[in-house]
Design a protein that fits this description.
Length: 145
């Protein structure tokens, strides 16, 4: 040590500015990419207490609120639906079709699509429903002769 010099002191602080920079960049990346990851359909499914659907090769036909028709995630017309289903049936005789329809779609429209599915000689048809929640009030139906 020389005369008049002070002993060296070490800084024991952590520099957090680079850490904050990295975290903010990651936050921006996640904020930009998150909306792109979720591409769902805006439909409200009816509920059911039983759910016994097994995972297997299947086609999903969706009827949206505005009565647009989708096969998988692709828009399709009613005329082309039967053709596509017949082709899929020829490729795989054990294929299943699941029908998802918004609960506001009229019953007649759902039956029409079910008729097209049966017209393609597909025997395995399932209806997709959402899980039943306890807050939904039970509706009573009367059937008149």
């Amino acid at each position: 040590m020389t005369v008049g010099s002070k002993p060296r002191q070490f800084l024991s602080e952590i520099n957090v500015i680079p850490l904050v920079d990295v975290v903010l960049v990651l936050l921006v990346i996640f904020m930009v990419t998150a909306p792109m990851l979720h591409r769902g359909l805006d439909i409200t499914l009816p509920t059911s207490a039983s759910n016994n659907i097994k995972a297997e090769e299947r086609l999903v036909v969706t009827i949206k609120k505005d009565r647009t028709l989708l096969l998988g995630n692709d828009l399709i017309s009613l005329v082309d639906l039967k053709t596509k289903l017949s082709q899929s049936k020829a490729e795989n005789p054990q294929i299943s079709v699941y029908l998802r329809a918004d609960q506001t779609v009229p019953y007649g429209a759902v039956v029409q699509i079910m008729d097209e599915i049966k017209g393609a000689h597909i025997e395995r048809l399932g209806m997709v429903t959402g899980p039943k929640t306890e807050t939904i009030e039970e509706e009573s139906f009367t059937i008149s002769p």
